[in-house]
Amino acid sequence: RIDGARLWDGLMAMARHGATPKGGVKRLTLTAEDRAAREDFRTQCEALGLAVRVDAIGNMFARREGRDPTRLPVLFGSHLDSQPSGGKYDGALGVMAGLEVMRTLHDLGLTTEAPLELVNWTDEEGSRFGHSLMGSGAWAGVYPLEKVYALRDGDGVTVAEALDAIGYRGEIPAEPFPADAYFELHIEQGPILERDGAAIGIVTGAQAQVWWDARITGQDAHAGTTPPGARRDALVAAARIIALVDARMRDAGEEGRGTVGFLKVEPNSRNVIPGEVAFSIEFRHPESGRIAHLASHFPAEAAADVAATGCALSMSQVLHYAAQPFDAACVALVEQAAARLGLKARRLVSGAGHDAVYVARRMPAAMIFTPCKDGLSHNEAESIEPAQAEAGCQVLFEAVVARANR
Amino acid sequence: RIDGARLWDGLMAMARHGATPKGGVKRLTLTAEDRAAREDFRTQCEALGLAVRVDAIGNMFARREGRDPTRLPVLFGSHLDSQPSGGKYDGALGVMAGLEVMRTLHDLGLTTEAPLELVNWTDEEGSRFGHSLMGSGAWAGVYPLEKVYALRDGDGVTVAEALDAIGYRGEIPAEPFPADAYFELHIEQGPILERDGAAIGIVTGAQAQVWWDARITGQDAHAGTTPPGARRDALVAAARIIALVDARMRDAGEEGRGTVGFLKVEPNSRNVIPGEVAFSIEFRHPESGRIAHLASHFPAEAAADVAATGCALSMSQVLHYAAQPFDAACVALVEQAAARLGLKARRLVSGAGHDAVYVARRMPAAMIFTPCKDGLSHNEAESIEPAQAEAGCQVLFEAVVARANR
Ligand SMILES: NC(=O)NCCC(=O)O
Ligand SMILES: NC(=O)NCCC(=O)O
């Protein structure tokens, strides 16, 4: 069995990189804090005799050889980057649990049939460069590497520059190598497991998503002298779109998701009518058809709504993917592991995007969820219990070993 | 007569301090650019033999002695600070025209009966520290100096620190000294003069205003996992208030003004439901009663609207002043000067706040407006014609000399 206390200590130690006063983590991808987390991870891997490789987008792979040199490796892992005000467990749980799996095998002197590879994916969150699942997306060939290299953060720094700045533009190509399967443990980041009193979520897939960058252009003007009829207030127009996103989310019922999470006003001076507002829009739903409909119809609906204010709207699509089902055999391995361990489990669809979504396009994949307090995530108050982490890690161990030894 | 070409050259030279690529000016108060403008102004004043004094809030007074030592000085001027994306004329016109008045008297070898003082007020715009008319307000005793010193910009720098950083916390107290009257020339920043084909606006007063700092608190949460019913989205709540401000402005008809010019989202990450939004709210109207009504009723109305979203609103009042009428005798001097010069003029109420509003609480005051293209201001494209600047400067000259020699 894995060592729950050791796993917890590892999680707490990792949470020091980018720790915030409110008990959360600010460890944006490819920053100094991310580099510190990566170095820590690498050191721990090498101490277990794992061979660490870094690819051209900074994804890290730590390999443990198997008994059978003809077998393809079983991959597992998650991500060490965080939101700007994120929690200690989103991503880090999957990586540190993976390390605990490796450590347990090491301590037991066990060698699996197939090799194992523990992965730390680059930029899962997407907060810095605007693209979530960036590292796994580049690796899986969803995004061309040159396009990803050219993405810029809010300060104008490109992904390529940021990789070089922390020394993590690696030697091996960012592309799928032959592998047998991928498993990822992650906190649910939602309320379902806690509500149902389940210790383990058997994740059957992830929901469909569409994301846009939007920009509304009006005209800067004096707040005190410009009469109502002469105003082209980009923020008044943006407020209509924020309301429209919320309304379309609610139209889709309890499973609907629609969010404007990022918004920036220009010139952002209190006595100037805003001339420009840049913001993000996203919708999610388990049914791909609903998201496809929004992807094709929402931009025109929003543009018409903005036109009524005398402003203009432009929207450029950042990502759009259909619901991604996971591999039935891998999902079954997770389900069997939970059952063998006597853990209460339920099937569910992931509300969040995960690296497993893109990896699943290249090989059989599955995910394991564990509950988090009040379903709260992307928040510094994100919280889990040591026993919940331990249960998830044990299921990961069983599923990975079962797959590698099959 | 004043020299229009020289005035224009002076304006263009001043516009180099903080010049932007789009032809505007970014010269936020108490920055390096503001300091350069101040030094330039001081040098030009001293070259004319004027004695320059700086008060404790950085207001600059350049004095020209009169013939009669018992007479109180006649003041005139405006401000050299700008909006973050401001124009070349907002404020600078009044200061540079004042310098041209001094220069013309100097060239003609004329001494007025009363002394003259040309003023450059600190932080008229209010964009950096959130308080417009800050220097004149502190000077007039509207704001206690210690409170003003403690105001902070977006980077946490206080007014006191910013004054010291550019060496403009002056020797003399920031308080009214005995003076006879104040005149201010400014661009209208609105469409009325241009529409009516008038060269000169006889400003009879300024409209009432109320400003608040507002903050909405919801809860950061994951955009993909948090169901509609569990969301407390501070940006969705803020969008309602932006729409409400716009609606209340429109209720007040053509003379209504209501603006959210500044807004900041936390954590401002595209896949995080915003947990906090800070923003500004302002209303203006020529009728003080309407603004007083909003000052007392709007916060409760807005709070009720926000409560429906599960978020909470707090509002703190930044300023509230009634309509300020200007002095009838000073207004008449402006009107007579325009008539004598054969310039088409009309009376109007200022839509913008001006230093003259606070100065008028301490001494007789009046203002002169000149048109600007399309009424556009607080915009880098702000534009005026040299002949318009010259006409305004000539009226300023006549009014100031008439008052000083009466
Ligand atoms: N797991 C997670 O929070 N991923 C970020 C991508 C998303 O927005 O779903
Ligand atoms: N003149 C001017 O633009 N002043 C700024 C203060 C205001 O918002 O009216």
UniProtKB/TrEMBL annotation, chains A, B:
Belongs to the peptidase M20 family. One of its GO terms (molecular function) is hydrolase activity. Residues 209-286 form the Peptidase M20 dimerisation domain. Keywords: Hydrolase. The keyword Nucleus does not apply. InterPro entries: Amidase_Cbmase, Bact_exopeptidase_dim_dom, Peptidase_M20, Peptidase_M20_dimer. SUPFAM superfamilies: Bacterial exopeptidase dimerisation domain, Zn-dependent exopeptidases. This is Zn-dependent hydrolase. The keyword DNA-binding does not apply. It comes from Falsiroseomonas selenitidurans. It comes from the Bacteria.
